[in-house]
Amino acid sequence: MKIVFITTSAAIVWYMRRHPQVRRTYDRDQDTFRHLFLVAAAFALSYLYVTTFSEKHICWAFSIYLEAVAILPQLVLLQRSRNVDNLTGQYVLFLGAYRAFYILNWIYRYFTEGHQSRWIPWIAGLVQTGLYADFFYYYFLSWKNNVKLELPA
Question: Is residue 84 a part of any domain in this protein?
Fold first, then answer.
């Protein structure tokens, strides 16, 4: 599954960068989020807050912290453009739903596997789900009122 996940992720990035129809829709003026700050913050947190100070655990913590905030540039771009097309809105919705179901899985496992918990993914998952909360709110309002999704300024 990891190979399929990595391959499809690489294919999506390639498609977004190389396909002329998709590349034409990119607006550099709207996309000004400084993503390197997120990478640097995740890297710093992976050294400061890790369960075991080893290369393997630091890399694991870095990936968890970075995954928690990786959607932030997309959410900021959607907020700036205000007008969200159906495909993008549904993509972000399902990414957030995936994370919310992950949290439900952690809660289930906490009670069925001897009350063991790993606080790093729990906190990162809650942060990531919290980042989606605003988007969820406006997505469900637009769905309920049967109107096109537009985010406030």
Answer: yes
Full domain range(s) for residue 97: 31-145
C-alpha–C-alpha distance, residues 57 and 35, integer Å? 23
Tokens (6 digits) for 81: 């453009």
pLDDT tens digits, one per residue of 27-48: 677 777 888 898 999 899 888 8
Structure tokens at 29: 């003026």
User: What is the C-alpha to C-alpha distance for residues 63 and 121, in angstroms, rounded to an integer?
Assistant: 10
The answer to whether position 82 is within a domain reads yes
Which residues, 6+ apart, have CB-to-CB distance to 120 below 8 Å?
49, 50, 51, 61, 64, 65
Residue 152 lies in a domain: no
**How many distinct structural domains can be found in the chain?**
1
Query: 83 pairs with which residues across the strands?
Result: 150
Which residue blocks in 19-54 are alpha helix, DSSP H? 20-23, 35-48
Q: How many angstroms separate the CA atoms of 38 and 45, rounded?
A: 10
pTM above 0.90, yes or no: no
Q: Examine residue 22 and state whether it is found in any structural domain, yes or no.
A: no
